[in-house]
Amino acid sequence: MSRYSLTGNLRDAAFQKGTDLFGVADASCFLRPDYTGNRPQEIMPEISVVLLLGVSIPRGAFATLPGGRGEYTNTLMAGTATLRVIAFSLARQIEREGYLASIVPTEGSEFGYWYADRETLKADLSLKYAAYHAGLGSFGHNHLLIHPDFGARLRMTGILTDAPLEAGNPHASGFHHPSCKGCKKCIDICPAKALSDDGTINREACADYMFRELGGLRCGMCIKVCPL
Ligand code: SF4
Ligand code: SF4
After folding, report:
1. Cα of 140 to ligand 1 centre, how many Å?
2. From the CB of 194, is ligand 2 less than 6 Å away?
3. 117 alpha carbon, distance to own chain's centre
4. What is the residue range of 25's domain?
5. Residues 6-36: pLDDT tens digits?
């Protein structure tokens, strides 16, 4: 099967199963000098692409913050569970075509970045960086991917594969979302003072707040206040 048909078949299957977001990033983006995270090549040396899948998180989960932190956290985890089911099915579809496929932990899940590396709090790879290179959006000051339709109200996962899928290109608006210029809503609301207007995050401060002060419930205030 050609790379175009396989990519198209996977895209169709993903949307049929309930994904809101589908993209493909050429794994070579992780070799660029601007990338400072862990590389998927360390996990799968033969990797060609990262296939990105995402679901939008219902607005009600943000509207009820901060009182509804339990509901917000549970809604995020429901997104994670949904993505796992979709990704598992797609991984098996890829392997039926004779390629390797393995599913990346969803960010913030029990195997995601808060837990994967306790020292750096960095994931095995940055799904947001891959999503940017796949053309799914750009980075906000809240250090999250901003999608044109769903803003930062997203949950994502990825599939590492050596399948020769058709990769996308970065979003035309550039790495930093243009709407962040002149807006500091997420920076001002952050209870941990973890965000900066150069788009960086103090991971430790954010994790400390959620895991020490909130006992593991997620915060989400930097998403709630974002107008995008
Ligand atoms: S709240 Fe404002 S600065 Fe923060 S991500 Fe949204 S638009 Fe950008
Ligand atoms: S999740 Fe909360 S603590 Fe973490 S960066 Fe966003 S607002 Fe700050």
Report:
1. 6
2. yes
3. 17
4. 3-167
5. 999 999 999 999 999 999 999 999 999 999 9
Q: Model confidence over 63-78: pLDDT tens digits?
A: 999 999 999 999 999 9
Ligand nearest the Cα atom of residue 137: 1
| Centre of ligand 1 from the C-alpha of residue 178, in Å | 9
Whole-model pTM over 0.90: yes
Asked whether 102 and 159 are in contact (CB, 8 A), the reply is yes
Residue nearest to atom 1 of ligand 1 (CA): 226
Q: What is the mean pLDDT of each run of 10 residues along the chain (228 residues)?
A: 85 98 98 94 97 98 97 96 97 97 85 70 91 96 95 97 96 88 95 91 92 93 97
What is the Cα–Cα distance from 199 to 196, expressed in whole angstroms? 6
Query: Is position 78 within any domain?
Result: yes
**212/192 Cα distance (integer angstroms):** 11
Domain assignment present for residue 51? The answer is yes
Task: Quote the CA–CA distance of 185 and 168 in Å, as a whole number.
Answer: 31
Please give the number of the atom of ligand 1 that sits closest to the Cα of 185.
1
* Pocket flag, ligand 1, residue 141 (CB < 6 Å): yes
For residue 179, tell me if it sits in a domain.
Answer: no
When divided into structural domains, the chain yields a total of 1
